[in-house]
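Notebook B, p. 112. Complex prediction, attempt 2.
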Amino acid sequence: MSTEPKDKAKFDGAPATPPNDSWHRRLMEGRAGLFALMTTVGVSIGGIVEIIPMYSIAAGPEQMAEVTPYSPLEVAGRDIYSREGCVQCHSQMVRPFRAETMRYGTWSRAGEYTFDRPFLLGSRRIGPDLHRIGGKYPNAWHYEHMRDPRSTSAGSIMPPYSWLHKDTYTVADVTASVVALQTLGVPYTDEEVANVGASIKAQADAIVADLATAGIHTEPDKEIIALTAYLQRLGRDGSAAVKAREAAAPTPL
Amino acid sequence: MSTLTSASNHSGQAESGANVMTFDADDAMVKKFILASLTFGLVGMLVGVILALQLAFWPANLDLPWTTFGRLRPLHTNAVIFAFTGNFIFAAIYYSLPRLTKTPMWNQTLSQIHFWGWQAIIVSAAITLPLGFTQTHEYAELIWPIDIAIALVWVVFAINFFGTIATRKVKHMYVAIWFYMSMVITITVLHIFNNLALPATLTRSYPIYSGMTDALVQWWYGHNAVGFLLTTPILGIMYYFLPKSVNRPVYSYRLSIIHFWALVFIYIWAGPHHLLYSGLPDWAQTVGSIFSIMLIAPSWGGMLNGLLTLRGAWDRLRTDPIVKFWAVAVSFYGMSTFEGPMMSLRSVNSLSHYTDWTIGHVHGGALGWVGMAAFACFYYIVPRVWKTTLHSLSLATAHFWLATVGIVLYIVAMWASGITQGLMWRAVDEGGQLQYANFMDTVLQLMPFYWIRLVGGLMYLSGLLVMLYNIGRTIQTSGSAVVAAPPAAFAK
């Protein structure tokens, strides 16, 4: 137990701190190291208690075996979605309310996000939720919507994204992403990583061919193709799994 | 309460007499941080106004990749949080810490590295964010090389900060220092753990957490970036500058002890209230809500300590703009810290989440609490470090009214907008079908509110411009006066 030095008052003629030997002053408020340590402990407890259980089966988010990783083209599309800040205006989390499931589809389950790095739940719906957008509209709708949002959605306040129809992604860049994701534990096989180019080509060519049937002619390496692939994938594993489980189980999930 | 410690008797810069202790080297840093804060404050708020315009009038996105809302919003949030508020906090700490410890900042070279490093980070953020380089985590968008730079510069600041405390000549640490310390420690922890990621390229990385865990870590960070960058350091600043501004001791020292420890312990737990009704396990959501409600007590402890310190000085509210700014700042702190816990109740959150109510809430805290506190401090510090008197008292008062009316317009518009849209999303007709099945109906309904918000934001920005002019004219008369205690700092 130390007390405050007697010579405190001599500094600059400023008035001395009033005499006060209360326990918290002796114990804490004159001891910077201890104070910093106690603060560190104080601010650490909440995070530890909340975050560590996320890695336990019992207390963590539920998993869904039916949900599989994004394809390389979808990874490229997701990176574009991130780059353009789509998450600033669109959520990807349908809440379990009747008004939301009527508007968007079945509510979002934790297990659907297993391969989402980073998560893109969003915090503001300036536009509608997109978690169940996959398969809702044809590819051509997305192509036109991104070119001129008001051509598909009258009154929309979304800006046009015309550069997506001109700019291109590269297989090398997508491969770097897939390799990093595999390193982090996303279950891509080495064979899948080796064949990123072929996988992209097959999926992109199919979208280009589909667009051609709607009279839209473009190339498979355009960014809009990757973004469309991602949007068309969103939420489909989850909603298919929920449908299958509801068909198999007598009570709704 | 007069026997308890006040900021006044910790002051190193005695107002008169021969034993004046001065900190010229640190005051030179204070000047730099203030000018940086003002510059980036102008940029950040200008971008905010542009964003408000883009929501009301979409062609303002200009059809260019780097000027669309999705890329500019992170620029706005990062600029006002880390550039405007960050530089303001550093200015206030470099001003008050030497005076509270009667010790110059520990190392002047570290002070310089801290200042220039932080500005380099801000400039790199201003370049990378419009280019679309982002981690997407809110308020942690900056890419991994910049994150490393932030960690290094922050450590430089922390060494300088704790070095000063270790060599302090006042053994007892005044309450302001506790709050500063909690920021230095907690931001370090939050920044490191939320940004753990594996780089794929120079500009892109993927977090080590996935899905709901990533979401939880991010909102543990995001909520406490608000807590420990926009709350605790500002409270520390309040505990130094508010008593100094009215020349009265802090109302209750015991209250400050209780609310400090309660705040630093409880704040950290509240992050999950950003993820109510999500896939986050229910127990974590509930814990987040409970701790959010508990946060009212320590938050209001700080508010009451601030407001009650003004007791006996209320007459100055009429004449001294600094007191006006503080009174409104502390009041908005109290309002926001009541509104936030209410919004973390599931029933309220089901309406407010995803709507402009959240935007209104955060701006009540940001414009009302942080902004007004910053303005109060700038009007207090600038005449002192430039050794002059403030150019115009009436311009400062005009700034106060522009800012206050601007905030009210902004917040009321966002409350109305948020509640309107939240109710429209859930409205069902007699047949049980969605009344507004077309999402666009719920958007177009908001346009009048978006224009009102733009007017509010413009008023707040105009107030800032008035302050910039006033401070600019003040600096022109640098060195002309021996500064006396407030409110005599306002000579005209």
